[in-house]
From TrEMBL:
InterPro entries: Na/ntran_symport, SNS_sf, YocR/YhdH-like. It comes from Succinatimonas hippei (strain DSM 22608 / JCM 16073 / KCTC 15190 / YIT 12066). One of its GO terms (cellular component) is membrane. The chain crosses the membrane at residues 12-29, 41-60, 92-116, 153-171, 183-203, 223-247, 259-281, 312-334, 355-374, 394-413, 434-455. This is Sodium:neurotransmitter symporter family protein. It comes from the Bacteria. Keywords: Membrane, Transmembrane, Transmembrane helix, Transport.
Length: 461
């Protein structure tokens, strides 16, 4: 299998592609929301600790499984533990990636639609229609858009076609090349927007909120929220990094790659806070704990209000911000798509092109159902949730924690020490002195932390 599979052509490509699989809406949308709802600096302090204790060991575990098996996520466990029930773990993870991509592409379409609205000046026009005591036009605009039977689907299809073209071009010419374009562009936009945010009137308050240590604000709620954010921000349990690692070269330094990806992911998340909160504190009456509506309802209004004295910036900043969202989202859809495409192609035999078509068509169709569930299909519910919300709940709060926990347990208890040493040292080419600590983490620390996330997300604790 490994002789006919694609591979990344450079160490830079490995790092950027792996970082792209982690960086997504969880960093730019969910992180500021969680920080705003959980005390800012207190949340960030706990989050950084969670990345070290949960994120890095689990990312490294996925890398070990992927590179040592030289197989896609769905087949990796059949290679490493043949004739055992572990094979179902890989397929379970692929199913999770399929369901996630099916509803994630709906939100991906929203980011593209909002980029279009920012470019065409729709937000500036909406700001001019605001009246005291009247309905918020930004809220009305969002609700009318997501409930429309056609517009969200149009942008969903466009977004998935872009993803499809990249996947069709293969690992090196498609995934790696796109990562070398999207990720540097993403970092540049992040820096430009952060510099712009520092010129806003609320910059001092925003930075104080984010970075002033307040240890008294740390409680069980903040800890559990930080654990959950770490889990979802790093895309753990989806098999993306596992599949990508199967394309890594033998000399790729897995510990260094995991640390670099963790740092890049955290950098983007914190920079998103630097971009958003100075804007929030620049507008009277706005609060940092805006919740999930922050990105698509509050921020367009906030940007226009905070930058009303500069028409150019009032147009440019929203354009750059939603372009940032598009770049972050597409690197995630690419990695999710690849998990499924590689599994179908290498397990059932169709060419990569045919497998990619199957994945794109099926996820678009299921995505259309998820999108329509917020409009014409809104009355059809599963467990008292519309289809979109059910997919989100079932994958994020049930499937991913289960998959990630068993990834850690497999590496910690099933995989032998020799393969671990081979992968963590790149066949002896690099030094790795933390094997015992890593084993302790994946055997005990990571499963316990994931259990806490699992119980917290289900509101059991």
């Amino acid at each position: 299998m490994s002789s006919t599979r694609g591979s990344f052509g450079s160490k830079l490509g490995i790092i950027l592609a792996a970082a792209g699989s982690a960086v997504g809406l969880g960093n730019i949308w969910r992180f500021p929301t969680q920080a705003g709802e959980n005390g800012g600096s207190a949340f960030i302090l706990v989050y950084l600790l969670c990345v070290i204790c949960l994120g890095l060991p689990l990312m490294l575990a996925e890398c070990v499984i992927g590179r040592h098996s030289r197989a896609n996520t769905g087949s990796a466990f059949m290679v490493l533990a043949p004739n055992t029930n572990w094979k179902w773990l890989g397929r379970f993870s692929v199913l999770a990636a399929f369901l996630i991509l099916s509803y994630y592409n709906v939100v991906a379409g929203w980011t593209l639609a909002y980029l279009y609205e920012a470019v065409t000046g729709t937000f500036i026009e909406l700001a001019g229609t605001m009246t005291p005591g009247g309905a918020n036009p930004f809220s009305v605009n969002f609700m009318e858009f997501v409930s429309d039977p056609l517009k969200p689907i149009l942008f969903l299809v466009i977004f998935m076609l872009i993803t499809h073209v990249i996947i069709m071009r293969g690992v090196e010419k498609g995934i790696e090349k796109s990562a070398k374009i999207f990720m540097p562009a993403l970092f540049i936009i992040v820096v430009v927007l952060a510099i712009s945010a520092l010129t806003m009137p609320g910059a001092k308050q925003g930075l104080y909120f984010l970075f002033h240590p307040d240890f008294s604000a740390i409680n069980s709620k903040v800890i559990l929220s930080a654990l959950g954010q770490c889990f979802f921000s790093l895309s753990l349990g989806m098999g993306c990094l596992c599949t990508y690692a199967s394309y890594f070269r033998k000399d790729a330094n897995l510990p260094k790659t995991a640390i670099t990806v963790g740092c890049m992911d955290t950098f983007v998340a914190i920079m998103a806070g630097i971009i958003i909160f100075p804007a929030v504190f620049s507008v009277p009456g706005m609060e940092p704990g805006q919740g999930p509506s922050l990105v698509f309802i509050a921020l367009p209004n906030i940007f226009n209000s905070a930058l009303s004295d500069s028409p150019i910036l009032a147009w440019l900043v929203p354009v750059l911000f939603y372009l940032l969202l598009v770049f972050a989202t597409i690197t995630s859809t690419i990695s999710l798509h690849e998990v499924i495409t590689a599994f179908i192609s290498e397990t059932f035999g169709p060419s990569r092109h045919k497998a990619a078509v199957m994945v794109s068509v099926s996820t678009i169709l299921l995505g259309c159902v998820c999108s329509l569930s917020m409009g014409p299909l809104g009355d059809f519910k599963i467990a008292d949730m519309v289809i979109f919300d059910f997919f989100d709940f079932f994958t994020a709060k049930i499937m991913l924690p289960i998959a990630a926990a068993f990834f850690a347990l497999f590496v910690g208890w099933k995989l032998k020490i020799r393969p671990l040493w081979v992968e963590l040292t790149s066949h002896g080419l690099v030094k790795f002195k933390g094997l015992r600590l890593f084993l302790f983490a994946v055997r005990f620390v990571v499963p316990v932390l994931i259990l806490l996330v699992f119980l917290s997300e289900l509101n059991i604790i």
